Amino acid sequence: MRKIFLLIIALFTFSASWSQVSEADKNAALQLVNANRVAIGLSTYDVNNLAVSSSYVDQNSGIRYVYLVQTYLDIPVYNQMQVLTFRNNKLLSNAGGRIALIEQKINISNGIPAVSAPGAVVAAIADRGLVSSQAPVIISTKDNGHKVEFNNMGIARENITAQLMWVPATEGKAVYLAWQVYIIPNTSSDYWMVKINADNSSSLGADNLTVYCNWADPDHIYPFGSQYRHADEISISTFGETNLFDFKKINKNSYPVTVSPSLADNSNYRVIPPPYEAPSFMPGASTTWHDIRTNPWTAGSANATTLKWHSTDASGTDYNYTRGNNVWAYEDPLAANSGSVSRSATSSTALPNLTFDFTPDYTLEPTVSTPSPNKQLNITNLFYWNNIIHDVLYNYGFDEVGGNFQTNNLGRGGVGNDHVLAEAQDQAGLAATSTNRNNANFSTPADGSSGRMQMYLWTAPTPDRDGDVDNGIIVHEFGHGVSNRLTGGPAAAGCLGNAEQMGEGWSDYQALMLTQDWANSTLTTGFTTPRGIGTYALNQATTGLGIRTQRYCTDFTINNRSYAASISTSPHTRGEIWCATLWDMTWNIINQVATINPNIYDLAGGGGNNIALKLVMEGMKLQPCSPGFIDGRNAILQADLNLYGGAYQCAIKEAFRRRGMGDGASQGSSASVTDQVTSIILNPSVSLTTGGTIQVPEGQNISYTKSLSTLCTSALTNYLLTDTLPTNVSFVSATN
User: Fold this and answer.
1) CA distances from 424 to 334, 437, 643 (A)
2) Which ranges of 516-648 does DSSP label H, i.e. alpha helix?
3) Dist CA 232 CA 681 (whole Å)
4) Is 330 helix (H, G, I), strand (E, B) or coil?
5) CA-CA distance, 558 to 523, in Å (whole number)?
6) HEC assignment per residue over 353-407
7) What per-residue confidence (pLDDT) applies to 21?
């Protein structure tokens, strides 16, 4: 008993110093881990070398999620994580793993860095080609000097931070002690995490928390797209967001739920509403490619829309412009990278009745404010859609504890102060030849720091097009925030930096799901109606390919993208395989339940579309850090077991089998895109049941029936069923 008591105390003490998880959740998680240690596969040594990065309970399913990070000498191992789920104190799932015998693979045996934190910061700045105007000044330290906060050194939008960690290399065969330096340069859209060897100041690589979609250069021939160069961005001195690391404390009870007297109760927005993917998808002439929506938050659930759309309720302040608890949308023509009332769209009426009724003229440039308020419409649409996405996905598990983007978490867990900064027409005020065009990106720091969406103009025959009204692009970019927050838990950042990760696929899938006309879809729509992505921004017809090589469709003659032994290094081309598979799966499930719910908000409605989206969202929560395609497949199958008792295993397996990820498929290393093993085989699974009376008085006959059934395969033939009788039983007869 004494050993166990000391073990738990050690765990509690260390975890408190490392993570942002609340004390109650951390303690609950560690108790479950200790009670299920054998089932998880952890030794006593393993349990003494871990930390809880995140843990929370989903109130609908009752599932507790636990994200464990491997540690050594009280120092975390980068992205080495186990993802666990529990229900009723029992282990449901276990993904990810640990580096075995790590003590034999490290480069500094005592865990004491030879390179100081200031020295690492200087090395990281040089590695990124930046030139600082100030020396590093330590502002605060934590965890015995393992976390250090510095000034911005005149080159960053936030204070620079450094954290000591172990960094695996060569598939975990070597492990280096390193300082991870977090820096958001003034001169670019990057959010860098640079790893500096703590032994010799060499660079061990860098991860970027900004996902550059490079829509104009999908194959990434150019580092940031053929029309995107960092040198052309304009410097700004302030960003105003909290830093990545845990220099702040989690506070579930901040911003209690109260009702402000001026809460915006009635609001009208002229927008391109769901389910329309873009203006060109709306009926009629271009003069009618918009519509008024009144109080759109009423479509969401109560918890998703407690504050409606224009209040944070932190101090009774409500906004009469495009700002609220979930997002602040504004134009950013000079790359200020911070919100401004004057650059937001403002209501023409006073609180509490707001009016954002800006009628566009699509024959004019999207940047004009007069004679047509095109710019105001586009900012309003960006605000509107960020809120729509928030409200829809909230019901599917992207809520406060799941790491969503909200200023005020209303005492429901997670870390607040991280609404989306949605920057419309970013640097659009520059010349038409600007390099900052035909693109979009999303930056996703850990929970508690704002996600940032940067939307650009698109060069087209006069006038230009604006991504701010291409709803598919908006959802796609927001989707990067979703996949990065859910994978590895909300406190992690950088879990999707590996070669085989599927971020572009998840983003395309969410774009399809939230812009599909479910009210007019039938069971065959997935086969008969192909979907492109980004056709409006590219000035294509609605039936165009958009930015992808093929339109998404379950018809293999239209889309035959499949997993292969070598898949593209381009994240977009690779993502097409993943999205095509998820799209197939969605229509498989729809046809299994024979129901489509016209209301995508309504998870409880039980439509196949609702079920599929829930499984995809849940799969992201269950998969390990640095997932590959097979990890993602297995996580979705596990999500079905956890949530629906395995009711959709066959529909899921068939979709993956069809695209080359059947039984026998292997991803190899998720750090490589050239070592996969494909399979279109679905191995037969046989279920045996016994029925009838199996106990009678001695001397009488027993009659019973044994039944065989197959799962996910056609009927078996030429099989032999045998049964072994006890020695005191005589065989009488058998039929069939």
Assistant:
1) 11, 12, 38
2) 525-528, 571-593, 608-622, 629-644
3) 51
4) strand
5) 18
6) EEEECCCCCCCCCCCCCCCCCHHHHHHHHHHHHHHHHHHHHHCCCCCCCCCCCCC
7) 86
d(CA 219, CA 217): 6
Cβ atoms 255, 409 nearer than 8 A: yes
Residue with tokens 């959010």: 191
- Output the pLDDT for position 316: 67
Nearest Cα residue to 378 out of 356, 405, 403 = 356
Q: By the 8 A CB rule, do 445 and 452 touch?
A: no
Average pLDDT over residues 662-685: 94
Which of 477, 402, 486, 491 has the alpha carbon at shortest distance from 448?
491
Residue 676's pLDDT is what? Answer: 97
- Yes or no: say if 526 and 516 are a contact pair by the CB < 8 Å rule: no
Look up residue 272 and give its two tokens.
């391109």
Residue 101 CB contacts under 8 Å (≥ 6 apart), including other chains: none
Tell me, yes or no, if 477 is annotated catalytic.
yes
| Residue 710 to residue 353: CA distance in whole angstroms | 60
Residues 6+ apart with CB under 8 A from 698: none
* Residue 335 DSSP one-character state: -
> How far are the Cα atoms of 476, 482, 485 from residue 399, in angstroms, in the given order?
18, 10, 11
Catalytic one among 233, 241, 400, 477? 477
Question: How is residue 426 written in tokens?
Answer: 């970013």
Quick one: pLDDT at residue 721? Answer: 77
Ramachandran angles phi, psi of 238, nearest 5°? -140, 150
DSSP single-letter state for residue 311: B
For residue range 231-275, list pLDDT tens digits in order: 222 222 222 333 344 444 444 434 444 444 456 789 999 999 999
Could you report the per-residue pLDDT of 204-235, keeping only the tens digit for each? 999 999 998 876 654 443 333 333 222 222 22
Q: Is the pLDDT of residue 504 over 80?
A: yes
Global confidence as pTM: 0.89
Check if the beta carbon of residue 64 is closer than 8 Å to that of residue 28: yes
